[in-house]
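Appendix B. Raw example, untouched.
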Amino acid sequence: MSIGSQIAKRRKELKLSQEALGEKVNVSFQAVSAWERDMYTPETDKLPEIAKALSTTVSWLMDEATTVPRWEFHDEMFDLDHMYSQVRYSANALGLLETSKALILMKKYHEGQTRKGKDKVPYIAHPLLMACHALALGLKDDDLLATVLLHDVVEDCGVTADMLDVNDDIREAVQLVSFEQKKGESRHAAKLRYYENMKDNKIAAMVKLLDRCNNISHMASGFTKEKMADYIDETEEMVFPLLDHVKHTFPEYYNAVFVLKYQMLSVMEAIKRLI
């Protein structure tokens, strides 16, 4: 069977209209119709998006002998409102004033933003999941949790660290975890400088490890194979040395760092065998 026939077959199994599928992959229903009638084949770089919309794989679209996965794919793993309430409750119960302020600022600055490659997942799902992860690891430091919630606002929201209504330690940590490539500097050199600068700030370093763990855990749903490979390379070259430095320099984080490394390694080693 052709790719177009596979698309039509799977679309009908899911009871999706051509218009609904078109909306999911940002094309017109006429384009979907043309695919299904084999008037033309979808562009190669569009296939992962189509497969995701149809809860299947590119391999299945291209080969009828491949079994359709029996699972649905979930970009948003945990309920957003529940995570928000959990962080707010924990901040109130523990008297974390900076975290309470950061929660409001996070929502304000990321308003309307969505995760890259996941146009229906609000951006705040990322910092909220990181904050819940930190709390589950027993990390209840006010400055740490506030930095987690605000760690992307300088990079992604057009604000500067000194505009944030939080204490100086949090502003400094947020600035350190905000990546910036200087004019004339290679991306690799910029990354080396970035990790070196944050290594002795325990808040920034720990937030970066939580951030990388979260991104690795979700990269299969939003990264190309090439980007996953590059991300694994960067993690092994730069993130794991930072992790080992934190483990030996800040013993209060030893157990949390062990769990983060275990989670990152588990996902990375699985993905290495699939790409």
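End of appendix B.
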